[in-house]
Design a protein that fits this description.
The protein is α+β, with helices and mostly antiparallel strands. It contains 3 helices and 10 strands. The protein binds zinc ion.
């Protein structure tokens, strides 16, 4: 029994394939329990100012590393970079042993697409969302910036 569990643990929990949301996405190959590290993000750790410029230019593979640094986590260094945005995600990026891991935040069914909330802020280039969730926010904008956006819109219109 113990041996079986160990073998299962060694199996890759994700696979890369075409996503109904956009481009390539990551999908669960097995049911995954909440709080499981699934795949590590890899890439260049850069000063946050450099990350901010990349985001302004439309990059969507820049993730927060620590208070002063971002990570340029494009998929050429780790397939973790393929993870798509969802407004009601099943994963988040968590720190583990000094690295950043795509980690489940609720139980995930086999075959489900792995999604995180990109949570772009108003100063960044954010895109329309096609995550397909019935309560999709329509934009990849972090929740706390919506009141600001509504205020801006009311001034423009
Ligand atoms: Zn959405």
């Amino acid at each position: 029994m113990r041996k079986e569990i160990k073998l299962q643990r060694r199996k890759q929990l994700w696979e890369k394939r075409r996503s109904p949301i956009t481009g390539i996405g990551l999908f669960a190959t097995l049911p995954i329990r909440a709080g499981t590290p699934i795949i590590e993000f890899k890439g260049r750790v850069i000063p946050w100012e450099e990350g901010a410029i990349m985001l302004l230019r439309g990059a969507n593979h820049v993730i927060k590393f620590d208070a002063n640094h971002d990570m340029d986590a494009r998929p050429q260094w780790s397939p973790a970079g393929y993870v798509n945005h969802g407004c009601y995600p099943n994963c988040a990026i968590k720190k583990k042993r000094g690295g950043l891991w795509l980690t489940s935040i609720r139980p995930i069914e086999q075959g489900e697409e792995l999604l995180i909330d990109y949570a772009f802020d108003l100063g960044e280039e954010f895109e329309p969302c096609r995550c397909g969730h019935p309560r999709c926010r329509g934009l990849m904008l972090r929740k706390k910036d919506w009141p600001k956006l509504r205020k801006l819109m009311s001034k423009v219109l």
